[in-house]
Amino acid sequence: MNQPINSTLKRFTQRQVLFYFTTNVIINALVPYFGFDDLSAVYLFRGEHPVARFFLPMALLLPLCITIDILNKTTTLLEKEQLVTSPPPKKVKIRFMLKTASLNAIITLFLTLAAMLGIHACLPENYSFNGTMLSVLSGVLAGGMAIFFTLQPIHKVKKLYPH
Prior knowledge:
There is one protein chain. By secondary structure, the protein is mostly helical. 77% of the residues lie in helices and 0% in strands. It is built from 4 helices and no strands. Helix 1 (3-35) packs antiparallel against helix 2 (52-80) and helix 2 packs antiparallel against helix 3.
């Protein structure tokens, strides 16, 4: 890849990672914290406010939304700055964005559900978690996913555009 594209994408990536990381850590830590009724007794799958209520939608929506958004922003930036000579047709870009985002979301949801079911199978019958700890864990997971699902699509965009 040529130098102007690399330098443009590097600056763009740094801003986007910081933005997505910060917003997702804050939102995905505070929403569960204030959503748990009793912070001293939070369960994985049972009760009115289980952890699954927060983790599973996050595992599906966060990769889906971030991937689509970052792919759209990245391709638009490269075309606007005229750093690519032959942009692919709009139909190809949309199919690429939806396929990548859907795959990211489904894999993340499956892995999260599998991990939660594995943890559930290993725990005693009435085991509960500390809600504050789970809120922090939710924020950390969301931040990690935000970083990964910002960097991974940008890497894929580099393959989409010929140089």
